[in-house]
Amino acid sequence: MAMIVHLVRHGHHGLLGRTLCGRMKGISLDNLGCQEMARCADTIRPRPTLILSSPQRRCMQSACIVAARFGLPVEIVPALDELNYGEWTGRTFEDLGRDPQWSSWNTRRGASRPPSGECMRSLQRRVVGHLEQLRSDHRDDTIVAVSHAEPIRAALLHYSRIELDNFLSIEIDPASISTLSVENGGLTITGINQRVSA
Questions:
Q1: Please, what are the domains in the chain?
Q2: Is the predicted pLDDT of residue 140 greater than 90, yes or no?
């Protein structure tokens, strides 16, 4: 059996869609998020052999829900961490909408960065680098990697050969699964943004 990697976005939390949480501490899943992740765990096939998570609390909670379903431990992986949004961390999207730098960032993801933050290209390098290392080390495993919209999107853009400036061409919903499989010696996308409705 070839390696399969399920890239799973964390479940819903109370600030989702209102605040750019980034690496804010203590952001937890709400009841909806826990329910979403339980449904997500029920759809993961084949049975995973490894559960990985971003260090952020909302991802660790999501990963623990999946891990409990399969009786597996969770491994924390810094490479799966959210983009570092620097000075934008914690600002509302309404407030950011008035910031010209925010507008520039959202039209030129490949060439700009958040103030005092991490550029999208750097994020893409660390996520893809980790996925390629997994490909070398876990040839026959099914892996669940719980992360955030931007790291997952960055990986999918890479494997789709789509430029970073076109980041909005790939949607990544809460508790969604996007899947990579090894084909012809490399990772190939076999599913994007798959979700189970309530």
A1: 4-194 (3.40.50.1240)
A2: no
